[in-house]
Amino acid sequence: MSTDKTRSKERTISISRIENIHPYKTILFFGILVSTLILLTLTFLFLTTLSENNTKPPLLPKVFTLSTIMLLFSSYSISKTIAAFKKDSFDLLLQSTITTAVISSLFILTQVVGLHAIYKTGYFQSMPFNSLYFTSLTAFHLTHVILITTYLIYLTYKAYHRSQDMVDSLLFFSDSNIFQKLNSATILCHYNNFSWLALFLLFLFSF
């Protein structure tokens, strides 16, 4: 009987924990899961076409290396967001989100420049199947960066707007929804940056 009661309590605790999971975390988890599956599928198809056609990926322009370094800096800047929120500091929070948004915008620009440089080499015309998956991988990741950057700009605007109101500024740092949004943005940035680093190394060392 005691064993059954213990199991019943454990099940109740597990169910209550699941019920207490914030909706943002649930959406974030499934979003990352789906994105990972898509990236893995495109990566598999890209490597398969390289192997079947006995070809190599395009020679990456130096601007791609620059963009990768930028993302490492953006990971550092976005990591300061949660700490700033816990310190109740609008200045540190805005500094973190604005810096990350600017770096991400520069990353988008360098990616476009890099893709244009690859296009000029004739890679997209001479290797249609390889270039299809290469373009799909970079475009899929770039779309994520654009969405996250837009979301960061939105959060920055909301934080700045509320910092100008005395009452809102006092309530801002006790708002759990704001914390969850900032936390989700931070996790997404780190995930996106890690994804690009993995893709960059894949393109760099694929044979």
Molecular structure report:
There is one protein chain. With 207 residues, this protein is mostly helical. The protein has a single domain (2-205), classed as Cytochrome c oxidase, subunit III, four-helix bundle (Four Helix Bundle (Hemerythrin (Met), subunit A), Up-down Bundle), CATH 1.20.120. Helices cover 87% and strands 0% of the residues. It contains nine helices and no strands. The radius of gyration is 22 Å and the shape is elongated. The model is unreliable at 12-19 (pLDDT under 50).
Concise summary:
With about 210 residues, this protein is mostly helical.
- Rough shape? elongated
Work out the radius of gyration: 22 Å
The CATH topology is: Four Helix Bundle (Hemerythrin (Met), subunit A)
Number of helices: 9
Under CATH at level 1, the class stands as Mainly Alpha
Mean pLDDT over all positions: 84
Count of domains: 1
Oligomer: single chain
The number of strands is: 0
Report how far the terminal alpha carbons are from each other. Answer: 62 Å
| CATH architecture descriptor text | Up-down Bundle
Computed structural class: mainly alpha
Q: What share of the residues does DSSP label as strand, in percent? A: under 5%
User: What is the CATH superfamily?
Assistant: Cytochrome c oxidase, subunit III, four-helix bundle
Run of helices and strands: HHHHHHHHH
Helical percentage: over 70%
Quick one: biggest sheet?
none
